[in-house]
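Here we describe the complex-level prediction in full. Unlike the single-chain runs in Section 2.1, the four entities below were treated as one system.
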Amino acid sequence: MKTERKVLIEDTFAEAFSMYMVRILVTASTRRWALASAMEAKGLGTTAIFCPNEVGVEAEVNSSDTPDQRPGVLLMMGHPKIENVRKWVPRRIRHCILSVPTTVAFDEMPENLANDSVSIEGTPVQLFGDGYEERVEAYGRSMFRIPLMGGWFYVSERFRVTKGVAGGNIIVLGNSMPSALLGAETAVDAIKSVPHVFTPAVNGIFASGSKPKSSYPWGTTNEKFCTCIKDRVKNTMIPDGVESAFEVVINGLTLEDVKRAMKVAIEAAVKIPGVMRITAGNYEGKLGPHKINLREL
Amino acid sequence: MKTERKVLIEDTFAEAFSMYMVRILVTASTRRWALASAMEAKGLGTTAIFCPNEVGVEAEVNSSDTPDQRPGVLLMMGHPKIENVRKWVPRRIRHCILSVPTTVAFDEMPENLANDSVSIEGTPVQLFGDGYEERVEAYGRSMFRIPLMGGWFYVSERFRVTKGVAGGNIIVLGNSMPSALLGAETAVDAIKSVPHVFTPAVNGIFASGSKPKSSYPWGTTNEKFCTCIKDRVKNTMIPDGVESAFEVVINGLTLEDVKRAMKVAIEAAVKIPGVMRITAGNYEGKLGPHKINLREL
Amino acid sequence: MKTERKVLIEDTFAEAFSMYMVRILVTASTRRWALASAMEAKGLGTTAIFCPNEVGVEAEVNSSDTPDQRPGVLLMMGHPKIENVRKWVPRRIRHCILSVPTTVAFDEMPENLANDSVSIEGTPVQLFGDGYEERVEAYGRSMFRIPLMGGWFYVSERFRVTKGVAGGNIIVLGNSMPSALLGAETAVDAIKSVPHVFTPAVNGIFASGSKPKSSYPWGTTNEKFCTCIKDRVKNTMIPDGVESAFEVVINGLTLEDVKRAMKVAIEAAVKIPGVMRITAGNYEGKLGPHKINLREL
Amino acid sequence: MKTERKVLIEDTFAEAFSMYMVRILVTASTRRWALASAMEAKGLGTTAIFCPNEVGVEAEVNSSDTPDQRPGVLLMMGHPKIENVRKWVPRRIRHCILSVPTTVAFDEMPENLANDSVSIEGTPVQLFGDGYEERVEAYGRSMFRIPLMGGWFYVSERFRVTKGVAGGNIIVLGNSMPSALLGAETAVDAIKSVPHVFTPAVNGIFASGSKPKSSYPWGTTNEKFCTCIKDRVKNTMIPDGVESAFEVVINGLTLEDVKRAMKVAIEAAVKIPGVMRITAGNYEGKLGPHKINLREL
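The structure predicted for the assembly as a whole is:
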C-alpha cells in the first residue's frame, strides 16, 4: 500500500466493437435467490463467438431501488447480431429466471439509450403459460404474468435494446502467475464501481485470449501473449521478466462507460506488487470502430 | 426437530428417461477458482429441452482425491441425444473451463459405467491451440495441453459417456410458499450426500414444471400443479390447504443412484414444518422407461 | 407477489436503549479479503450481554468510495458501556483486521455524530509494532502503520464514538417455521438498503429472545414468545395459528436510522405468505429511553 | 502446472504446544444456516493470546453422516488453559449456535481421544431455559433441549475435551505479495483434506506473526520476518528476492494430524510460481514440547 511503483502502461489501444445489449433486473424474495438466478443466466456466457451470447452481472441492487421493493441483481446480455439477441434473451429468461423460485424479470435499459427492443410476446417465455398467462400492469409497467407451480412469474413485456460497446480490455502482465492474477482481480473489483458495464469472463478474468484473424472460425489462442511458449513464438509480445498474463474484457452500454471502467481497472491493477505492465488486445484496427488508447485514460 | 409429523407421500411415481452423460472433474489452484469455473459451466443448463444441455455440480472434491492434488469440483452434463453431447461438452469446456485461470479438466466417469466417449480431438478445445497444442501424458492420463496467456491448459483427451437416468423428481407441496421452498432446499442439501447424481435446477429447485404433452415443443406450464390458478384448472392436483409447490429434479449415472437420491430427498423434506405432501411428476408412463414409485423408496 | 394479504401489525413498541458505537471501514486488495476480515471481526458479536460486544456489517463499499480506492466493508461495533468499547474495539482490530492479508482499518464515523473517540495509541494494535510502528499521514488521515510479515498495516489513529441506539427490533410470527424464517430474512435483506444501521444476529435473525427481567444475569429465554412451550406458559404471546417466531434486532447511529430500518423491515416481512403478525420485544418500558411504536412506522 | 520448480524448504522446525480442545458439530435445516452459525462461532477466534480462544472450521459434513441426518459443520475450539475452555465454549454455543435458526450442537470428539469434558449443566446455555429446559435422550445421545422463539434448541449434555496440539505452522515466502498469498491459500485449501485439524487465521492465513519473547504480554510483531522493514532489522530472516511472507497456523487433535496437515500444506504451496521458500516459526525451542521438522515431513 502507498508504495511508489512504476508499472509500464504500453502505448497501445483496445479495439472495441458494437454489440446489441439488453439490461435485465432480476429481483427475488431474497438476495440469495436473485443472485443465484443471475448467475445461472450468466453461465455459458463468456463470449459471443460461439457461446450463445455474452452475459455478465453488473451489480446488486438494494430493495429500496427496485420496482417491487425486493433485492435485485442487474444482468446484461449482448451479441453483435440482433437476431441472436432476439433468440437467446427469451431463452435465458425462460430457463434461468422464470424457473427460479420467487423471481421477477424487469427491463432496466436506461430510457435515453434504447433504440430497439425484444418482445416477450410469442417467445417461449410467454408461450410457457399455455394460455393461462395474462398481460397485466404491475409495478407501474406492462408485464406478462405466467402461472408456475411456485406462483405467478412476472416479466416485462419487452426488453429494450441498445447498441453498446464490447471488447474493451486490459491485459495484466506479471512477474509471476499470482501477481498477474491478483492484479486482474483487483481490476475486476474496481470495475464494480462503474455502472452500465459488465465483464463476461468467469470472475471477470480470462486466462485465454484469441487472436484477430484466426485460422479457425471459433477463435484460436493468441500465441504472442502465451507466456508458456514464448520461446517458440516469433514476435512474442511477452517481455523478459513477465511470466504470466490475464485479460479483463469490459463491455458497456456506451463508449464512455467502457473507458471509465478501463481507467479504474488500470489504476487498481498497477497497485499490486509484481504487476509489470498493462497492455491491451487489439486487432490492428481491423475489427472494430472504437480504439481506446490506454495512455489517454 | 424430532417432532412427529405426518406428511402424505402420494402413491405415484416419477417417470425417468435415458440421458447420455459425462462426468468432468475441474481442478484449479484454489477451491474458489474450481467452483467459479464449474458454476459458469453449469449455467444455462437447467434443462435439455432447449438449453444447450443439462448440467449440474455433483460435489466438491478435496485435493487429496484429485489426480493433480489440487481442489476440484465434479460436474455432470447430459442430453438425451448423443450428438448434442458431442457438440456441447467441448463447447462448455472451451468457454467455461479452458478460459478460466489455473483450471484443468479431467474425465472422471467411473470405469465400469462408460460405454462411449466424446473425443476432444478436432473440437474447438484442441483447435484453440492453433498447432501449439500438444498431446501429453500427465497425471497418469492421456491429455492435451493448450497454450494460453495464463499458462498451459490441460484437458483429458476424451470424456467417456454413460447412458444415465434423468428426470427423477419429487414435488414438495407446502401450506405456504416458504414451507414448500425450505422443504425443497433441505431435499437438495440431502442429495449432496449421494454420489453420482446432480440436480439441474438453480440451487436445485424448480419453481416451474412442464407438462407431458405440451401444445408447444419447448414445454408449457403444468397447470395442474399451479397453485395460483387452481380455481381455474379442472382436475387440479393441488389439494386444499396447499399453497405452493416446488420440484427437485434428479439425474444420475444409474437408476439406483437416482432412487437413492430421491429417498434421502423425501426423508429430508418431510421434516420441515408446513410441508404437506410429497408427490412426483410423471407423464402417465408415456415418456420414459423408468418408473420410480415414491412409496417403495 | 402483488397479492393482497392482511398481516396484523400489533399495537406495541420496540424498546431501545443507548449504545456507544464505532464505525470502521475495512478495505483490502479484494472484496473477498475485506469481507472475510469483517466477518471475523463480526464473530462472537451477537449481543452485548456477555459476548465481548455487539458487531455487525453495515454494507459493502465500492472502491470508488473509499479513501484508498480499494473495495471495503463497513462494520459497526457497540456496547452500552464506554469502557467496553475502549477495550474491545482495539482487540477486534488487532485480531480480526490487522492479522488479515492486505487490510486497512479506517474510522468512518460521520463527522456530525461523533462525540467521543477511542485512541489506538497505547493499545495492543499500536504496541504490536514493538517500536517499529510509525505515525503517518496517509489517505488524507492521521494513521499508524505497523510492520507485519505481509507488509505495512495502516490503521486510523483514533476511532470516533457516537451514542447510538440499540435494541430496535421486530418479531415475525408465522404459521410455520419456514414462513417466519423467510419473513425475517426478507426483513434483513431490506434493512441492507438503510445506511448507518446493523443487525447483530447471525444473518440478522435471532431464534432466541431474552426477557426483560431475567432470573439470571446473562439473560433467559422469553417464554411468552416460545412457540414450542406455549401450552405450558400462562400469558403466552403466541396466538392460535402461529407456529414459529424469529426476531430481527436493529442497532443504528441515530433513532431515525433505526426507525427507518424497522419500517422497511416490516414492509418486507409482511409480503411473505404465511407471515401472520409482526410484533416487537419490549421490556414494559423499563429498559430504555426510546419507544418505537410499530403502527406509527 | 507440472512445471519443475525448486523451492527451498528451510532446515528448521515449527514449535507446537498443548491446547485443550473441543470438537463441535453444528447441524441445521440447511447447509447455509449450519455454516453461518459456525462462522459466527469462529469469529474473534484467531488466537488464544487474548481473543477469547482459538476457533476454526474443520469441514462441512454431509447429512448422511450426522446424528440428525441434516447438513453440518465441524468446529474446533481450544485454549492452553482448561479454565478458559470451560468459560468460553458455553458462551460461544450460547451466542453463536443457540441463537441461530434451526441449529443443533453435538459433541463430536473422537471417543479414543477424550480425557476430560465441559459440562453444559449450570452454564448460560442450560440456564437460558429458565426452568423450561429439559434433559432428554435424542439422536442416541444425552442432550438438553432449551425452548426458544424459533423452537427447541438441542445441545449435547457435555463436550469432551482432548489435549491437542497447537502452533504447527508454515511460513510461505514469495517474490511478491500475490505469490506468497496464493501459496498460502493453496496450502489452506490442501489442509481441508486432512481431518481433525483447523487453521485459526481468517481464511487460514496470517499477515502478522508474533515473536517468541515479546516485550509486551499480548505479543508483538516478529520483525525478523517483516519484509517491509528488512533494511532496518538486524538478523532479518528475509533473504534477498523475498518480498512478502504469510503464515498458516495449524492446530489439531494429535501431533500426527498436525504433521500430516503441514506436509500437504508444503506440497501445495511449493507448486505456486513465485513461492521462493517455506520456513516455519519457532521460539528457539523454549515454548512448546513439540518440534516438527519441515524437512522430515
